[in-house]
Amino acid sequence: MVPEKTPSPDSSTSKSTDSSHFTEEEPGTLTKRGHNDDRHAPSIPKIVIIVLIQLIVGAIHAFRLGQVFNGQLYLLYYSYFSDLVLPFSWYFLLSISDASIPVLRRWYVKAGIVFFLATLSEILQIFGIEILGVTFDPIDILMYGAGVSIAAFIDVKILAPNLGFWAATKNE
Fold first, then answer.
1. What pLDDT digit, counting tens, does each position of 87-110 carry?
2. What 8-state DSSP symbol labels residue 127?
3. Which residues, 6+ apart, have CB-to-CB distance to 13 below 8 Å?
4. Coil, strand or helix: which one is 22?
5. Whole-angstrom distance, CA of residue 163 vs CA of residue 116
6. Where are the beta strands (DSSP E) in the chain?
7. Are residues 74 and 109 in the same domain?
8. Nearby residues of 154 by Cβ (< 8 Å), 6 or more positions away
9. Which residue among 14, 38, 139, 141 sits deepest, i.e. has the most Cβ atoms within 10 Å of its Cβ?
10. Are residues 21 and 71 located together in one domain of the fold?
11. Domain enclosing residue 129, as ranges
12. Mean pLDDT of 64-69
């Protein structure tokens, strides 16, 4: 049963307030509207997977795994690998917030945000503003698109249908 008058969270002198600021989530419990409760938190397994993706990408860069390549493959790796895997990892980093930010539940919104910001950083290099690199290369933009596309594919076609906890914030 919901009480008609509830102590005001704003005023210690007021004995009652309008109960329209509260909702009954389950019988006998009140939750303040707009309060960030556990229903909007990402699942622990999802967070673990996303953190592992970030750690793997970081480890590849930290341990300079590209040194195993020679010649043209070495140049391609050092020129474009980061342009592929960083947007990939950023897409999944945004996925942590899709439980609490509904607009991020759509794969194309996450992909668009990541692609736009990465491309903007590349275009700014033309004007001498160095964020993710120092030299403008239009192929970098293609790699950003490829990285985001691979991430969205894995999110929508592999993770969401096969992992129940991932589908709790299913992409629309």
1. 999 999 999 988 889 999 999 999
2. G
3. none
4. strand
5. 29
6. 5-6, 17-18, 22-24, 30-32
7. yes
8. none
9. 141
10. no
11. 41-165
12. 88
